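Record type: monomer structure entry
Structure origin: computed from sequence
Chain ID: A
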Amino acid sequence: MHKHNESAIVRVAVLTVSDTRNIENDQSGKLIKSLLIENNHIVQEYKITKDDILSIDSIVNSWCENANIEVIIVTGGTGFTKRDVTYEAISRLLDKEMQGFGELFRSLSYTEIGPKAMFSRAIAGTINGRAVYAIPGSKNAVKLAMTKLILPTCQHFIEELNRQ
């Protein structure tokens, strides 16, 4: 098994996608930021944007050009309402998709919420050498994705992306 540097500090940007959230009531964004900080990572950027593909694209693309950002976590907009466009925005930008992320997230979610887990369109992969995750906006989904999938592996993901 490939061992990674579990003490490596990762520089992260967090984007909340929502038509209703703001800095005061963005519980999921706050949870992501606090979990990152608790794990000694650095939150370089934090923004909230509307459920709009062009807006999501613009922010994510600008972060992917920023040498101080290694990981991007997008929360919200991964469902099936007409307004949910995060999956569409992120999936079309990905250089490589990490299929296992969405599969594992839905599998873990299934144990918590049952068959409704299949409605999640969580996705992860790479864009311009950055690790990018898109996860649902509920606090329970954020906690699950962060504690079970993202935090235990993000250092390894960055190491893989930086290998020659």
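Annotation 1: Residues 139-162 form the longest helix (24 residues).
Annotation 2: The chain has five helices and six strands.
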